[in-house]
Structures are given as structure tokens and as C-alpha cells.
Specification:
- The protein is mostly beta strands.
- It has a single domain, classed as TonB-dependent receptor, beta-barrel domain (Maltoporin, Chain A, Beta Barrel).
- 6% of the residues lie in helices and 51% in strands.
- It has a 22-stranded antiparallel beta barrel. It has a five-stranded mixed β-sheet with strand order 1-7-8-5-6.
- Strand 10 and strand 11 form a beta hairpin.
- The chain is globular and about 85 Å long.
């Protein structure tokens, strides 16, 4: 490797309804739906009753997928030597799940981050199998850039590939990746959609129209509009609108062309979170050894909003994709895919920081400091991918080969935002930086956030070659091998503003000298994987696999460190992080191939993370390791009973990390942080997810599920200053139960009720790295909708 330098009349407006109100409503609705189902089924007793809406077993959409959408994965899931979870739209539509984060609740081993370094995340901040995965999200096999929340209105299925995937995608996280497979035009005339209302002023409508344009062409259009608050959170809003279109030419012929466009907009008031004071596990020196020793502080109300109603999060995302497929011969197909995508996020958010005990004995005087956080970020991607799949035989041995080349240009432009300085005596409207801890105001005046003139402009150009071959030796044995080589060039240009020596009394525009710096890195990455599959029967497999990936400096954010700091993971002098995964598993299609069972033992390791030595120097020698067992079941237990469930046990550890003395057996802390022997943050030992539904002869569908997340630790260190002031080191486990019921009014229209968090569980949905602030889990809430299909 070389380097060169509107269906309910009682929806509560943005307020949390009581448990008793919603429970009574849910039970009453369920009883009415059940009664309707019984009466419809009992048509033999009364000839005057309406005919029941009969539902044939074959018409019940299955949760089970047989194959991933990527042409790079040539084998059915049952014969693929890797843990791959596929969440189909039929499943997340039953759950009224509309975002990627919600769809990912259907696989264990995934948690959500809140943010780090004083910032608050607003997008799909995924932590999977112990490692940050938010930079490894793909749409139809192409990396999707930007820290945004992704809607699933145009998604056919979500595919979660676990373990390093350097052969599939090039650079990436040690945990694997998530791919959203888009809806495509097809040769069936169909119209479907939903209209939903719910608690917290939730309103959403979608429509999906597919029309044939002749014998071999079709057009599909998906539309979506959402206007909603956020359950349990005052003032916060989450609004989406989008349009997607797919034009298909040459369907059913040897040459097929797909032209797809997607345009999304997001807006609303973002959430800076809630201070963690009073939560179980909260630590502050003032309650341990200080003036309030032995006392337990009161929690902040989970509905408190500490931001400004002028906060905003505006996102515009557009992409155009053209895919051409040519069948060259039987079993041989050439595909060429081109895409241009651009995402801009313009955001101002007020985050919460440090608690100040103004008068320690009087909690009414306690305040929380707030920071104005701004983001003005634009991501672009331009790529061309060529893939050749070929099935052929050499003697008695069969080959399924997938190979190709990729050319990718990616960029990220971040403008530096800041707040002009005001003299404390210059204005009577001096912004109130602090808020009352327990009674924050929403009409506080804040200074405007503006561009300072500084920016970070980064880009990466990559060209790559890959080849993967699955070799079928006989009916029982298969071998697979793959390799990918990437050569990339990353460039980062940074402009910073050096503060003025003497600031004026009143500053209305940023001042100071603009300074420029830059960094470059050219390097090669090689990823590979091996797998062996033994098939004791045609419907099952036992496999072993080994796979690698690499993540070079700047690989997650295109931002190289321009000072060449030796303790910065984005320094061009650092080696890439290296992920490996060893897996032993088994997969089975049972019950006439209607139910899919999986089990896998795995060990994932990530090397070359930053570790700090006793003398304060840092070097990329850190290592994290996650070992575990993952079980899964998805499909049909009977013709009417569908299920999707997953259970993961993870034993995670920082196997090489920080030390405070030269003794290799001594560490600062064995609980969390970046210390050797400590646990990896956001990685619970046990996670469980379940959803199942039963369809009665009348068409009534009753469904429900549960999610369990075990205790997790944050990255705070016991001996750190941050923890002594305001942190939660560990937060507890929790269960969340959901339920749904739907009933067909006729063959085209059905009503659906979803009740979320049935027991009104109070839990921490995500925590930031320092443990100072968190997002509460959504309380008891409901969504009522009408589904239509013609």
C-alpha cells in the first residue's frame, strides 16, 4: 500500500394523551373490529347479513424474502454465507413504520446515536454490532450521502448486511451496511396508498401508481406528504414530502432500461434533546461529594423543549439514476448504472449542555446552558457502475460470477456557521443563553447563526475493480471467493477565520483573518472474503465465512485533518481502520419454504482506532472486538400467521486501547470509554425484536410485537471531568410493545389502527457520547389509517 501526500375526531394537537384515554380507545376499536370480523364470518346464520370479505391464503403478503436485490449477491439468502436480514415493505407497512430508523427495529443488534462533540444528530445515526454505520447506507447499491432521515415511501425492502463488506462496496464500516431497494416500474397496472392521522397532529398520505405503457414499457409514480409533530415532544416537528418516478423500457426483452428520479424535502423544528439530570445512573459531583451530597435531583419533564421555535432543519435531496441491462447470452447479463445525487441540509438547532446550580438549595434557580448549532452542508455523488453476472460450467463445476468496475466521485461542502459577538452592555435584548432547567421558555431571543466565511470542502474520487465467484462443486458443497481493489484520492480544503486580537464593542458580521489549509491522500484499499457452504439438504445450509473491509482517513466525512495531527483518525498519516469478521452459521427454509430460520456465531474486529499512551501521545493501534450469536426467523408459521423475529447476544470489548501507566495490565476504567478492557458504547449485550400478525377468514388482521434493548454504556470515562459534572455512564434496559388491527371494508379498502408503546414505557431512546443529553422514547401513541389498493 502506498500513500502520497383524517380519520379521528379526537387527535390531540401536539399533546400527550393519557394512558387511560388511549387504552380505552384502542380496546374499543379492537373490540369493534373483532366483532365485525365475527359477524362477517358467521354469514350462515343470517342471510340478510353482508357477505364476508374472504381472504385467500395466497393473497396474504409474506414477510419472507428469498434474495437480496444486489446483482453482486448471486445466491439465494439460504445459500449466502453471511447474515443478511431483509425487511420487506409488507412488514414495515403493517407497523406503520415510515422511516429507515423505524424499519431497522426489525433486526437485532442495532441502536441509534444522538450525536457527539457537542452536536446533535438529525438523521439515521445507526450503530450496528458495536460500530458506527451511518456512513454505510446505500440506495440500490450506491452510497447515499448526508446525515438525513430517510423515508421509506419509495422502498421495496430494506437489506441489512452484517459484517465487513469491502468486496461489496469498497470502503466501509466493520459492522456492515444497510441498503434500501427502491420500487421499480413493472408490467402490472396497480394503484395503492394510505391516508393516516395520529397523535401529535400526525398526518400523512402516500400513493403508488404503476401503469403499463405498452407491451414492454411501464411508468411508476410514488408520492408522499407528511405533516407531523413528534409524540411526547413539545414544539418538535417532522415534515416530509417526496416524489419518485420510475420509467421502465424493454420489460420482458433482452434489453431493459430503467430511468428513476427521486426528489425529497424535509422540514420542521429539530430536537436538541433533554438533559440527563435525574436519570438512573446520573452522576454529578455536587450530589456525590458537594453541597447536595446524598440528594437525588428531579428529572426534567420529557416534554420540555429547550430550543427556539425559530430552529429549523431544511433538507432537499434529489437523485437521477439510469440503469441499462443487456442479456448477452443465457445466464450472462451486463448492467450499467449511472447516478447523480445531491443533498443539501440547512439547519439551526439549539442543543443542551451544562447544568448550573445557581442556588444549590433551590432547584427553581437551576439553569441549563444551550448552544446554537448550525449546519450548512451539501453532498454530491456522481457514479458509473458496470456489473457482469455470468452463470457457466467448467466440466462438472458450476460458477456464478459477479464482476465489475466502478467510478465514483463524492464530495461534501460544509460552511462554518457562527454567532456574531454582542457586548453585554450594548443591547437590552441580549440573548438568553441559559434556560431554566425545569421550566424552559420557547420565546427566548437568540442571536442569528450566520456563515463566518470558513468552510471545509472535501472530495473523494475512486475507481475500483471487483470479482466474486460462487463455485458449486456438487449438490452439497459450494465455495465462494471475492476480492475488490480500490484506488482513491481524497482532497480536503479548509478555510478558517482567525479571531481578531481586539473585538469591537458591537459585531454584526464575522471579523478576523481567513486562513487556508489543505490535505491530500492517495491510497489503495483491498478487501476480500471467503466462504464455504455445506448443504445437508436442498432447503438448508451450514456455512463458514471470513470477510474484511477498510475505512481510510476521511472515509466517513471527506474531511482530512489538515494539521497532520498524530492523534486524529482523519490525519492522512494514519493507516486505514481495518475490519474483519469470522462467521459460522446455518440457514433453513422450512414449512414448504414458507419460513426462514437463521443462526450465526460471529466475531467482528476493528483495528487501528485511536488509542492514547501513558505519556499523552496517540497512535492508531486501538482495537475493538464484538463476539456474539444472532438468531432469526421470518415468514409464515401457517397460511394465516406471519412472523418476523430476531435475537442477538453480543459480548463486546475494547481489546486494545488507552492506558494511564505503562503496566499493560492496568487501565483507567473497565466500564466504558476508550479504555482497554472496557465495553464498547451503544452495544447492548442482548437485543430482541418480534412482530407477528394473524389474518382471519373475515379479513381481520391482528398484529403485535415487542422490542427489547439491554443495558448500554455511553463513552464517558469514570475519571473524566465531563462525568464529574453531568453524565450518565449507563442507562437501563427496556421493553416496548406495539399492536395493530386492520379490517377490509371491501376488497379495495381497509382501515388500520396502530397503537405504539402499549405500556407507555419510559425509556432512553438514544444518548449522546458524554451522557449529558438524551432523546426519550416515544410514549403511548396511535395512528389510524385507510389503505387502498386497486
Amino acid at each position: 500500500m502506498t500513500k502520497s501526500k383524517s380519520l379521528s375526531a379526537h387527535i390531540v394537537s401536539k399533546k400527550r394523551i393519557t394512558s387511560s384515554q388511549l387504552t380505552v380507545t384502542a380496546l374499543s376499536s379492537a373490540m369493534l373490529l373483532a366483532s365485525a370480523g365475527v359477524m362477517a364470518a358467521d354469514d350462515t346464520k343470517d342471510a340478510k347479513k353482508l357477505d364476508a370479505v374472504k381472504v385467500e391464503a395466497d393473497a396474504i403478503a409474506s414477510f419472507k424474502a428469498d434474495k437480496a436485490s444486489s446483482p453482486k449477491l448471486t445466491q439465494p439468502l439460504v445459500d449466502t454465507p453471511q447474515t443478511i436480514v431483509v425487511v420487506k415493505k409488507e412488514l414495515f407497512q403493517q407497523q406503520a413504520a415510515t422511516t429507515l430508523s423505524e424499519a431497522l427495529r426489525n433486526t437485532p443488534g442495532i441502536t441509534m446515536l444522538m450525536g457527539e462533540n457537542g452536536n446533535t444528530s438529525t438523521g439515521d445515526s445507526i450503530f450496528m454490532r458495536g460500530f458506527d454505520t451511518q456512513g454505510s447506507i446505500y440506495v440500490d447499491g450506491i452510497r447515499d450521502l448526508g446525515s438525513i432521515s430517510r423515508d421509506t415511501f419509495n422502498t421495496e425492502q430494506v437489506e441489512i448486511s452484517k459484517g465487513p463488506a469491502g468486496v461489496d462496496n469498497g470502503r466501509g464500516a466493520a459492522s456492515g451496511y444497510v441498503n434500501l431497494s427502491s420500487k421499480l416500474a413493472n408490467q402490472e397496472d396497480a394503484t395503492s396508498g394510505t391516508v393516516n392521522v395520529g397523535t401529535s397532529d400526525y398526518k400523512r398520505a402516500t400513493v403508488d401508481v404503476n401503469r403499463t405503457l405498452g407491451e414492454s414499457s411501464a411508468l411508476r409514480v410514488n408520492l408522499m406528504k407528511q405533516d407531523a409533530g413528534v409524540d411526547g415532544r413539545d414544539e418538535v416537528e417532522s415534515n416530509f414530502q417526496g416524489v419518485a418516478a420510475s420509467l421502465a423500457l424493454g420489460l420482458g426483452t433482452g434489453t431493459r432500461t430503467y430511468i428513476n428520479i427521486l426528489s425529497m424535502e424535509q422540514s420542521g423544528i429539530p430536537d436538541g434533546g433533554i438533559p440527563t439530570i435525574g436519570l438512573d445512573g446520573y452522576y454529578n459531583a455536587i450530589f456525590a461529594t458537594g453541597a447536595l451530597k446524598g440528594q437525588t435531583p428531579k428529572r426534567a419533564d420529557t416534554e420540555n423543549f429547550y430550543g427556539s421555535t425559530s430552529d429549523f432543519n431544511d433538507v432537499k435531496a434529489n437523485m437521477v439514476t439510469v440503469r441499462i441491462e443487456q442479456d448477452l447470452a443465457e445466464g450472462v447479463t451486463l448492467r450499467n448504472t449511472s447516478r447523480y445525487g445531491r443533498t443539501n441540509q440547512d439547519q439551526v438547532l439549539t442543543g443542551v449542555n451544562t447544568v448550573t446550580f445557581v442556588t444549590p438549595s433551590n432547584s427553581d434557580t437551576w439553569t441549563i446552558s444551550r448552544s446554537r448549532q448550525g449546519k450548512d452542508q451539501t453532498n454530491q455523488i456522481l457514479t458509473n457502475q458496470t456489473n457482469l453476472t455470468a452463470s457457466f460450467e467448467t466440466g462438472s463445476i458450476k460458477h456464478d460470477l459477479s464482476s465489475g468496475v466502478e467510478f465514483i466521485y463524492e464530495s461534501q461542502l460544509n460552511y462554518t456557521l457562527g454567532i456574531p459577538f454582542l457586548s453585554p452592555t450594548s443591547s437590552s435584548t441580549m440573548p438568553q443563553v441559559n434556560a431554566n432547567l425545569y421550566s424552559p421558555r420557547t420565546d427566548d431571543v437568540f442571536q442569528p447563526v450566520r456563515r463566518t466565511g470558513g468552510k471545509t470542502d472535501g472530495e473523494t474520487s475512486t475507481y475500483a475493480f471487483y470479482a466474486q465467484d460462487t463455485i458449486t462443486l456438487n449438490d452439497q458443497w459450494e465455495l465462494s471467493a471475492g476480492v475488490r481493489a480500490d484506488r482513491f484520492h481524497t482532497r480536503t480544503d479548509v478555510i478558517t477565520r482567525q479571531a481578531a486580537v481586539t473585538a469591537p464593542a458591537v459585531q454584526t458580521v464575522p471579523i478576523g483573518t481567513l486562513l487556508a489549509s489543505d490535505a491530500h491522500l492517495t491510497d489503495e484499499l483491498v478487501g476480500w472474503k471467503l466462504g464455504g457452504v455445506y448443504k445437508p439438504a436442498a432447503n438448508g445450509s451450514i456455512y463458514v465465512s471470513y470477510a474484511t473491509s477498510q475505512l481510510p482517513p476521511g472515509g466517513a466525512n471527506f474531511s482530512l485533518n489538515t494539521t497532520n495531527a498524530t492523534n486524529n483518525i482523519n490525519s492522512p498519516n494514519m493507516d486505514p481502520q481495518k475490519g474483519t469478521n469470522t462467521e459460522l452459521g446455518t440457514k433453513w427454509n422450512v414449512l414448504d419454504n414458507k419460513l426462514f430460520l437463521t443462526a450465526a456465531l460471529f466475531r467482528s474486529t476493528n483495528e487501528n482506532e485511536i488509542a492514547t499512551n501513558a505519556d499523552g501521545s496517540s497512535v492508531a493501534v486501538g482495537e475493538k472486538q464484538v463476539e456474539g450469536l444472532e438468531l432469526g426467523v421470518v415468514g409464515a408459521l401457517t397460511d394465516k400467521w406471519q412472523i418476523s423475529a430476531g435475537l442477538a447476544f453480543m459480548d463486546n470489548e475494547i481489546t486494545r486501547g488507552n492506558r494511564t501507566v505503562d503496566n499493560p495490565d492496568t487501565t483507567t476504567n473497565e466500564a466504558s470509554g476508550n479504555n482497554e478492557g472496557g465495553a464498547i458504547q451503544w452495544s447492548p449485550k442482548t437485543t430482541f425484536t418480534l412482530w407477528n400478525s394473524y389474518t382471519f377468514d373475515s379479513g381481520l388482521v391482528i398484529g403485535g410485537g415487542a422490542r427489547y434493548i439491554d443495558t448500554m454504556v455511553s463513552s464517558s470515562i469514570v475519571n473524566s471531568t465531563a462525568l464529574s459534572t453531568r453524565s450518565v455512564l449507563e442507562f437501563g434496559d427496556y421493553w416496548v410493545l406495539d399492536a395493530m388491527a386492520s379490517y377490509p371494508i371491501n376488497k379495495n379498502i381497509s382501515v388500520q389502527l396502530n397503537v405504539l408503546n402499549l405500556t407507555d414505557e419510559d425509556y432512553v431512546a438514544s444518548l449522546n457520547n458524554s451522557g449529558a443529553r438524551y432523546y426519550p422514547g416515544a410514549p403511548l401513541s396511535a395512528r389510524l389509517g385507510v389503505n387502498f389498493a386497486f
